[in-house]
Structure formats: structure tokens, C-alpha cells
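Bump. Still looking for Sodium:sulfate symporter transmembrane region C-alpha cells.
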Amino acid sequence: MGKRDTKANVFLILALAVIIGSRLMPGIGGLSADAMAVLGVFFGSLIMWIGISIDWPSMITLLALGIIPVFGFSGTFAGAFGNTTVAFLIFTFMLVYPLSKTNFVRRCTISFITNKIARKGPWYFICFLLAAVTFMGLFISPSVLFVAFMPFLEDIFQVLELKKGGKAANVIMMGTAFCISLSSGMTAIGHVWPTMAIGYYTAATGNDVNQFQYMAMGIPTGIILIILLILVFKFLYRPDDVGEIRPEKAMNLRGTVPAADRKEKIILGVMFLTVLLWVAPSLIKGILPEVYTMVNSWSTAMPPLLGCVLLFIFQVDGERIMNFREVASKGVLWGSVLMTAAATQLGACLTNENIGISTWLTGTLEPLTKSLPVIGLILFFMTWAVVETNFSSNIVTTTVVSAVALSVLTALPEGSVNVGAVVCMVGFAAGICNMTPAGQSTVNTVAIGSGWTDTKSMFVWGGVFAVMAILVLSFIAYPLGTLVI
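Sorry for the wait, here they are.
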């Protein structure tokens, strides 16, 4: 560790001592305890900005301010970023980036495709391969995951001795693309469209949907769709060369990836802590209601903020695990963040009662809403979302369909439809986007350009998958969503 790092650590310890110490002090000289805490954050921040840097230490400032009850994390994020959604995306993108730089993707996939069950036959192998990419896609951005996974998928094709143009290889490539895109709707962890949908619902109604509630609907729905996809591939597409897949050949991949080092273990531990803070509150709601209320009030952006702070502080071999310049330039999808910020405000404006668009839209669609039962309305919005997301931006689809759904559904008699479940389903539907390159530009274009699949296959079987998704969302996801949201 160099002198510069030692000096930075001294300043960090001093700053943390000032911040934490001021939080524990009672009010002095007419100043309240909260005032003492704010002054502690102020002086602690000055110490870090002068002695360390102005970038990542600012995250500690936000974390310290959010812990002060009078401000809270929602108020702190709203003041710093405009809303919690933007803060959530930035911190989550930053948190996931170090994981994508490790061998986790390869190691995780190998563990899935080389177990005893996966080696029983070709379709077992395909099932576990798709399960692996879906699992990783639950918390890694689809674009990042697909780009990181493609070189390893090429290795898998080589080991299995599959040839381009074969149906079995086409099934694996299409299945990988479909499942990675699908996984981006199964959770709101680092995924833009579910996060936006939840944000629109919260802004319009004042009610929130936490990570556990969304996953309780999204993950079972995604699993059902993956099972149906595999059945379609097996019994409708029927690859005649699937017997050429020899799963035991994948055993050659074992030993090609080194064991997880200390750095990767710390990254995985911080990721686990982040997910735990998202999910745990809902699990202890009935047992420890006070703890649930406290943790739940931290907002969804606080756990990834804490995770980022930890990765910036922890060091391995004299270097901090996360480098701010690198993660800010390569890890954060700033285009998505800026569009989310603009689209969130646009959605709030579209549903603003004083503007009148909601009233006009409700009146215009009144004949439709009167003639259609609730399930008909749900089918209408799911069809609209899935069709549009296959031909345009996922973010645009989420913005437009969510805004209209909120305008129409909130005008219905109270209790007739679960608005939160429907809007969350719009965020899920935005991930069913593999028919055309425009649907998910990075995933679809790279898949088609690889030569292992083609435009026609993606359009036809992506269309079949889209139809299945519309039906599953309308008749399975919605009833499930009403139980948890």
C-alpha cells in the first residue's frame, strides 16, 4: 500500500469518526441532535473531499444524510437526483459492474451445465444452460450479461462441436437471447423498465411496490414462460440434430476458470447483502414490524448505495475494489439513466390532473373501458406492451403504456382492478422483446450477427414467445400479482 493510499485511509477513518460521532452526540448549545448530525456530515465530507477525492466519498455523504430521520433516504435522493428511481439505477449499475469483470459468469454457467442432472441428455443440458443465464440475468443488465456471455457461449458451441446453421445451436442461441431479455423483467434489480413502471405507479398513486413484491410476481411468471419456451422448442421447432449434443463434453470446461479470489468473494458478499436488504424487510413484516418499517423507509436506492460505498472502501492488494472513473464511464448506462429521468418526469406530467390529459384520455377510451371486462382491459394493455416493445425502445414502451394504463385504470371504480399489478406487468412485458433487432438492440443484433441464429428464426419464434407471454401475463401473472401487490 502506497503513501497516498495510507493517507487516504487516515482521512477516511477521521471523517467516519466525525460523522458517526456527531450522530451519537446530544444537542449542544441550543443545537438539536439532528443539527449536530448535519454538522458532523458537513465537516466529515470536507475532510474526505480535501484528503481523498470529490467523487466516491460523496456517496458516503448521501448515505450519512439519509440516515438522519428528518431527511430520510427518499428526501435525500429526491434532493440530490430529483427522484429515487434515478439514484437507484445509477447505484445499481455501479454495483453490478465489478461483478461483470470477474469470472462469475463463466463459473456460474459451468456449475449449472456440468451437474449430474444436466449430463443426463441434450434437453437437460439446454434446460440448465437457460436456467444459468436466467439466474444471472436477475441482477445483471441484459446488455452487459449478453456481451459478457457471448465469448463463453462460443466456447460451449466449440466444445459441443455444434455447427452454424444447425437447429440445436439455433435453439441454444435463441433460448439464451430470450431468457436474458426475459430475466430483465423478472426483477427490478438493475433493470430499467420494471424500475420505471414501479416509479410511475408510485408517482401517480403514492403507493410503493417493493423488490420482494415485484419478484414474488415476476420470478414465478418468468419460470412458467421458460418452461413453455422449452416445450415449444422441443415439440414444435423439433431440432433434428439435438441428439448431437453430448453434455458430457462440457466437462472439459471444468478447470478452465480459476477459483474465486478474495476480490470476487467480497463483491459477491456485498451483492448478497444488497439483495438481502431489498428482500428481508417483507419477510419479517409480521414478526418485527418496527424493523420492517425502518428498513423499508430506506427506499430501494439505499442498499446499492451502501454496496457501492463498501466496494469503494474495501481494498485488495493495495487497490480499492471499485475505481470511480472506470465504473462511471463503463459501468453506468448514462443514456438509460438520462432517459429514465426524462421519461419519469414526462410520465408524471402526462398523468398530472391539472394538465387534463388523463381526463381526456379516460373520456376518449370510456367506450372501450365500459364494454370490456377487467380481463379484457388487461389483455389489451399486455398485448399493446408486448407488441410495441418488439418494434421500439423498451423504455418508450414502458413510459407510454404505463401512462395510459394509469390514466384509464385509476378512473375505474375502486377495487375493480389492481392498478399496481397491471403497471408492474407492463414493466415485465417490456422484456419480451426478441422479435426484431429494434426490440432489444444489443441482445438481438449480437445474436443475429453471431451467425448461430437468423432474423427469420428470431421473428417467428420470438413471436410465438410473445403470444405465450401475453396469455401468461394476463391469466397467471395478474392473479398472482393481486395476492402480493
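The first helix runs from residue 3 to 24.

Edit: fixed formatting.
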